[in-house]
Structures are given as structure tokens and as C-alpha cells.
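Review form for a predicted model. The reviewer records the input and the model, then writes brief findings.
Reviewer: anonymous (R2)
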Amino acid sequence: MIVFSFSCCNKHDPVSTIDSTEKEIVLERVWELEVEKYSDDPFVYGDYAVLIEGKKYVDENKYFYLSKIDLLDGTKIWETEKYYCFPGSENKIVNGRPVKCGSYIFVIVPAGDDDFADLLIFNESDGSFFQKISDLDIKGSATLIPYKEKYLFWQSWDWENDISNPATDCSVIHKFNIEKMQEEKFVSKIHGNILSDLYIDESSGGGVLYYETMGGYDFDYGGGYPYPKINPEVGAYDCETGNLIWTHKIENSVWPGMQESLLINDNNLYVMDYGLVCLDKRNGKVKYENLMETIDFTNAYNGDVFRGESPYMFFYDNKIFCTNGSSWSGEAWRDKYYKNIQCLNANNGKLIWGDLPYDSCSLGGRPAVINNRLFVATYYQGVRVYNPKNGTLLGVDPTILNGGEGKNPVYKDLFLTITTNDSEWSKCSLVALKWPE
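Model under review:
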């Protein structure tokens, strides 16, 4: 039997259930700002962040608005007007996060059908509405990626939904000129299933856009859908010219890649795909592939080096830290396979240490190392702080109830996350945390 563990928590009972033997601590709340829970992902730029706020877990009168926050003291600089969404459907919500590019803030908004979306544009200085663009090929769950303050990139897809032949699916990478407020031709089609992630690297002065596509299953995982083998593909394009630099197929992948699966450090491109792959970012040559064996995957689904739904990898001290979809409910394989907080050796992709907190749900948030301490926001188990070298638990603050999601950005020496103490998640705060002096 395969255990699926992506959505094993529901956000209606935020009560801490930490292990009584664990050391409780109180992290310093440098500042705290009450917000309306809508998104877990503030977009940080300089000393500021922009956040989506509003109500989306209601049957009617859903709305959202954007707010700009000063990260020095946690004060709110401006809010946009409220935009009311489509009632009665969970799909009619803003799925992405806002981004800043140039002098503007951009956000993708559903436009009445799951296959259509608008691009709303606001002035960054005061939050005033600037423009709505409705004739672009943007799906509601596409990810906006800014480049050099003058372009936006995003992905869209042509999904045939033919489970017997995922090769019919294809994706398109779009490039949007901020100065002209119009799209420029970039990459027309990438065949072989839809794109799972885009990542832009500007470290060499120019810009390279990396992508990964989702692969196809090579076995019947229990749902009655044996897919043909379609290997995930990783590739690189020049951001300015759109020229293809290289491509690479991950031949031994046992499951398709998902979102937020790419990370770059120095000349290494790390790809999380139910295991860890390391490629030379310059030419796509394999440095190592440490992937799960199919037999392990089919027996336990979640593995020692498990590709969770959104790992949001964090690189520090030649180690990669991530969370994943494993949960305490999988008791049969808990010791061997289930570690939903993981530290991987960046040299070979092997597990250095891992933890599965007592009664933990699936996790999908990004850990972060600050001043040689690893911060991990969980659902019921508070914010957990570890020694990143060996996994020793330094303490748990059970008062921070985050939901185990989001990028949890770092600002200077502060860990930014969203917490609630309200049973309906209607009263939330964006908090800036640090280790107590």
C-alpha cells in the first residue's frame, strides 16, 4: 500500500502538540504585525516586503488586497483597495505571490476560468492601481520571476490531460518587458509534460533561466494509472536571447518533479526529485544523482531523501536543508523512511541527519539558517531550532503556529513567518523572530 501524505492537516485547530520531553523556548519577537491570512509568502526586496492579504477560505465574499511592509520595524506602509474574488470555489483565488520588478508590483489574478488569469500592476511607491493586462497567456498558478528590474518571466502550459501519454503535454516560457508593458517572444514550447519550476541565476553578470519539467510515472502507484516513462528534463536558456544552452534528462527518476525544485550555489545546480541531483550549471553535466530506488518508492512513497511538494531548499555550510511531505501518521515506515526535516550533504546528496517531530503533519516550508542556528516552522510543533551541523534540537517555541508552509524569508538576522492563535486562521500575524539574547 502506498501512503499519500500531502494534505494530512487541516487549518482549523492550531493547538501545539510538541513532545513534552523537548525543551521549550521563547523566541524574541522583534516585531509583530497583524495581517489577514491569505498567503504564506511575503516577497522581500531590500528593507521591504509585499504580501497578499484577505479572505479565501469562505464560500462567498472572498477578497484580497496587497500591502507593503517596512521590515525594519514591521509597520505597514500602504494597502491597495480590496479586490473581490469569485464566490463558492476554492480554485478562484490568487495562487501565486506578488513580485516587485522595476517601479511596480505585479500579481496574477484568476479571471473567471481556471485557464485564464489577469496581470494586475500597482505602483510600488504608494500601492495605487496602474494597469490590468488581460490578453496574456497566464494560468492562475503560474509563478512570476523578476529579472534585472526590467523583465518578468512565467510559465504556462498546454495540458492534454492524457494520462496514457504525458508526452503530449507541453509548456511555454514567457518574457514580459516592463518598460514596454508587453510580452516579447522567448521560448515557444517545451515538450514532455508541464514545467515544475523556473529559476534565474544572475551571479555571472548575465542571466540564465533554468527549468525542470514534470516527468511521467513508470509504475502503477495504486490509482490504476500506469503511465509510460517520461523522464523529467532540466535545461537552461539565456535570459536575454532565449537561446537554449543545454538540456539534461533525469533518467532514473521514479516520480515527476514538482514545484520549487531548483537551487544554485556556485557552479552547482541542485535538483530535488525524490532524491537530489547535482549538475554543473554551465553545461548540465552530472556531478551526482542520488535518487530513490523504485522498490523503495513503491514500498514507502516517502523516503530518506524525499522530494516533498514544495521543499524550498536552503544552502548553508555545504549542506542543503529542506522539508517534505512525510508525516507522523506513517507509523509503519517511520524509523526507516520518514524524516520531514532533512539535512543533506551537498557533495553527494546523502542524508546527514533528519527529524520527524512528534505528531507532525506534512511540511512544505523553507528552513533557514541564521547565526548558525536552523529555524524550521512547523504546523502543530511550533518553530523548531536545531544545530545545523548535527541536528541537535536547541529548543521549540510552541507559540508560533505557522502551518508548515511558505518560504519564510530571512531579513538580516530575522526569521519571517506567519503565525496564528485563532481557530479559524482569521487573526494572524507576520512576525520577525530571532534567537533570544
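Findings: The two ends are 48 Å apart (CA to CA).
Further findings: The chain has a mean pLDDT of 79.
Recommendation: see findings above.
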